[in-house]
Amino acid sequence: GAGPKVAHVLPSISRETGGPAMTVRRLVEALAIVSPRVTTRVFSADGAAAREALADWQTVHPQLVSRAGPSSLNWLPGLAPALRDSKRDLLHVHGLWLAHAWSTYRVARSQRIPLVISPRGMLEPWALRQGRVKKWIAGVLFQREMLQRAACIVATSRMEAEGIRLAGVTSPVAIIPNGVDLPPESFRAFGKLRDGGDCRRTALFLSRIHPKKGILDLLTAWKSLAPQDWRLRIVGPSEGGHAGVVSQSIRALGLQPSVSIEKPLWGDDKMRAYAQAELFILPSYSENFGLAIAEALAAGVPVVTTKATPWEELVKERCGWWTGVGAAALTMALSAALKTPTAELATMGQRGRALMERRYSWRVVAEDMMELYRWVLGETKEAPARLMFP
Question: CA gyration radius for the chain?
Fold first, then answer.
């Protein structure tokens, strides 16, 4: 017979908005492969503004719901009727604090449909400190009730699950990481520069250019280490004009000869950037998962990141450095990483790639998510123990 009908609701399908836009698409594609009986619809709250993003979503065809009123309120009068008309058995909302989450919850409650929530890092202590008042109001009005009434909350890491419990949420919590695409062999050119005659080794930062990513700490560390045979590429979309702050800092520190700030890269261009790097650096202050870290490891590049990201595996699997937050700790880790010979970094990268194949392939992630859905829909009696957080 026909399988369950699932709706995924997210604030935006535009890749400029970071991880969720890509990971939800890949999850839906992978679910269709592992469970052909499931029918999935994606609803996105960015209306006509996202038309250009639809090219990425050809296999999925999301329904775009238009916003109304001032953008700060993000009112979505069309979302609830669209969800009701689609007659879903399960609603899965990605992200909190915005109108798309509120509308989805209202439909779930009024139609008695189970609701699964992926907070996407929005319950992390760092995220909760940003825009405190707006979030406190949202929390009091509906967020707390919504979280407590959810059939299940999906965290992408143990660290995020702990944050959800710290926020006082008592609903069931499952840990299912994001998946990652493994680049084809043609992109396994570890550290090889195929453009120009620059023979310096390449360190790469590739993520949103946003204050929480710790780029200014990275520039401070780079200045104090002054590595002669390395260059640093800072690549990504700017948020809130932060790229301007970063460029100014590069100039003020006199780092132009070795540090470049570049526009975002996608698809094959992004894969090529990973292939040309010997080291990946993401010195974040808060990361519920850190998709760029998984992508770098999948591309066979060792990683330097902070303990504000859930990547303790870098130490266990010997494929990177997991250090304290801030310029001082970063300088020490980076000093060790930059002194590591190319051959040794390549070996670390191979261990990272093996870890991604084993634990983070989209197939594994989709199978786990499907197991969780079956339990939420009452098709299985017991919660899948290996996925559940106490």
Answer: 21
